[in-house]
Amino acid sequence: MKCVGAILLSLAILTPAMAETPVGAGSKKVERPDPVAQSYAALPIAERIAIETDLIWSGDYNGIADGDFGERAIAAVKAFQARSGGKQTGVLNPQERGQLAAAAKARQEAVGWRIVDDQVTGARLGIPAKLVPQSAQGQNGMRFTSGRGEVQVETFRVKESGTTLQGVFDQQRRDPARTIDYNVLKPDFFVLSGLQGGVKKFYTRAEFKDGEARGVTVLYDLATEGTMGRVVVAMSSAFAAFPAGAVAGPAVHKKVEYATGILVDDAGHVVTDRRATAGCLVITVAGLGNTDLVAEEDSTGLALLRLYGGRNLHPVALAAAGSTAIDVTVAGVADPQAQAGGGAVTTAKGRLGAATDNAMRPLEPAPAVGFSGAAVLDGAGRLAGMVELTTPLVAGTTGAGPQALVVPSDAIRKFLDREHVAFVDAGPRSAADLTAGIVRVICTRK
């Protein structure tokens, strides 16, 4: 943890390495730019930040991803190349860049990495959602925790008359439960790290602006260091106490969350949105009882539930492989607040756009809250995809409303095949039957 804090200082003063070359006896030495550093300087800053971020996740870079690609970042590239069996040039070729991105993505998905805006403090932060699936809102910030408290993330905000960064720093440093092994205080931020209670590591970062301090503390068991070491570095890099603009991402998980599920066979298997099942103590299908969580898939955002009641429901049939439906019907169960406490299945017309790089298709207009997991039906009433809703958030307020992407039927088919679920291939159905396999999914969290 000392390294994490030290990087905050060193990155601010790093400059591209310069080589000194003699030009003749008795002459002055002439400095020439390091070609490796120059190659990175020529890249767009977004790509430099992306490389640094991926190097954090690969475990090779212990610093801040700010696009200032200095000696430490270049050394990290060489370390990655050495571990990958490549030549240590310090410059990533296309194949190495792809390998680095894939390695980083795998580790992000393993911990459920998400960028969220904290509506209590106004700060933006990255959280490992799979490691801290439970959340609660306090007076001065949010608290994200694991089931047994092995990992905890807390945000805080201090804005009182006379608040100074020095004062907040001193208050944090005086905590009698802490043994501090690194601390740094600069004009606009501070960092503290060490042990808490002798059994947990902690890392606190806070920033100061206009008489207000906003910060985050990460607390984790020593036994989780193998995973949390790199996660803390990523969280430090992602933390923005006073962000500008909106970020697309999931809202903080509610204690009770409503979504839609799609019955896909006669054995009670239900497909829904994985984000609606994250961290649930109990998952219920309204009016039909509890379910078991059978499987989840990060790449598509799908979750599979098993329902042991509701045999009078009619499964929804999948569309043919390679469905190119454009004008569709969306069937789901809106959040109770959107229908005066009711739980009726409703439908709406929509239009699918062209597939994105990951085969997802945008849906316009976005349906109501509660339609995450809703069925997208083609003209024949077959399942052409499943809705995933995301909400753009602005610090402290709600943004432009939900945005909808659709997981295509081909991805659902492959997911069910892997789980050995024999989906229904029914013939034409009546209009009433089209919504008979649509159910409300209720997630209850601690």
Could you characterize what this model shows?
The chain is an alpha+beta fold and 446 residues long. The protein contains 8 helices and 25 strands. A hairpin with an 8-residue loop joins strand 1 and strand 2. Helix 3 crosses helix 5 (94-111) and helix 3 (45-58) runs antiparallel to helix 7. The longest helix is centred in the first third of the chain and has 18 residues, at 94-111. 41% of the residues are buried.
In short:
With about 450 residues, this protein is α+β, with helices and mostly antiparallel strands. It is built from eight helices and 25 strands. Helix 3 (about 45-60) crosses helix 5 and helix 3 runs antiparallel to helix 7 (about 225-240).
